[in-house]
Specification:
This protein is mainly alpha-helical. The protein contains 3 helices and no strands.
Length: 175
């Protein structure tokens, strides 16, 4: 394989990786928009359900307003948590796409190095280096993605806990 053929293959690989990254980014954005729309509709439905529940239970106007407000606040927190999770998923998707691009570039470099090998030992050494580098990249990115996942989950839990604590405080002071 000549150097120009290798360069064309590397350019084609980079182009494919770039297109994959753009597609992944668009998919993540579409998912985030759909989640926001769904949470908005769920909030609206929760308010309507709370109003119907209040009428059925015969709550006073003040009590109805309070229950409806609590339902809206709960749905708002759920929407915020959903937003946090979607943002986290987008970050994770971007990280995987970045990994794919970098892995592709390293593979092209590794193949180029193997093609320039002058002996079988050089070829084996280049192949071993390429595999070692790929594994190191994969493991490092996996650690970063795990950290992003944990941070996202912790942020969502923190929001839920803050809402639960606020509701408990309000119940103690309102009772």
């Amino acid at each position: 394989m000549g150097e120009s053929a290798t360069r064309r293959a590397a350019d084609a690989a980079r182009s494919i990786a770039d297109e994959g990254t753009d597609t992944g980014r668009r998919m993540a954005d579409t998912g985030a928009n759909a989640a926001r729309d769904m949470m908005g509709k769920a909030t609206q439905m929760a308010g309507q359900n709370a109003e119907q529940f209040n009428r059925l239970m015969g709550f006073s106007a003040d009590a109805q307003g309070e229950v409806a407000q609590q339902a809206r606040e709960n749905m708002d927190v759920m929407a915020q948590c959903g937003g946090v999770l979607m943002e986290g998923m987008q970050s994770i998707m971007r990280e995987w796409m970045s990994f794919a691009q970098e892995a592709m570039a390293r593979n092209v470099e590794g193949v180029n190095t193997m093609m320039r090998s002058r002996s079988v030992q050089d070829l084996y050494a280049a192949q071993s280096d390429m595999i070692k580098d790929e594994m190191a990249l994969l493991l490092n990115r996996s650690v970063k993605i795990s950290e992003l996942s944990a941070r996202t989950a912790n942020d969502a839990v923190r929001r839920l806990n803050a809402r639960a604590e606020g509701a408990a405080r309000q119940a103690r002071h309102g009772a």
